[in-house]
Design goal:
This protein is α+β, with helices and mostly antiparallel strands. It is built from three helices and eight strands; from the N terminus they run βαβαβαβββββ. It has a single domain, classed as ADP-ribosylation fold (Alpha-Beta Barrel), CATH 3.20.170. It comes from Methylobacterium nonmethylotrophicum.
Length: 115
């Protein structure tokens, strides 16, 4: 089961849990799809888009459970990033883990990140 990852503010994720689905963060809704990263891409995504931000969660999602709504498309540096065209069903979520800031100000990821 390949996993993809969403970095999400904890409060926004709690709202999604209450609603039973995740429709994306404001940037996702503006772009028309939910941004995800692979295990290899997630640390760079955190550094580039979430630098210094606390109270984040790392959401691991079963990519196969998303079906044809998930597309891998070129993004940063031409790398293929997973984009979900539609809401994220919570049934596809495999884990939700805190993504704390370390003493150096960078986010501390689980070791290893499963991919």
């Amino acid at each position: 089961m390949p996993l993809i990852y969403k970095i999400c503010p904890a409060a926004l994720w709690r709202d999604a849990e209450a609603a039973g689905r995740f429709d994306g963060a404001p940037v996702d809704r503006a772009d028309g799809f939910i941004h995800f990263s692979t295990a290899a891409q997630a640390p760079e995504t955190a550094a580039k888009h979430f630098s210094g931000i606390e109270n984040l969660l790392l959401i691991a999602v079963d990519a196969e459970a998303l079906g044809e709504a998930l597309r891998y498309e070129p993004s940063r540096g031409g790398a293929l990033f997973p984009h979900l065209y539609g809401p994220l069903p919570l049934a596809a979520v495999r884990s939700v883990a805190p993504l704390p800031l370390g003493p150096d100000g960078r986010h501390v990821f689980p070791d290893p990140i499963e991919g």
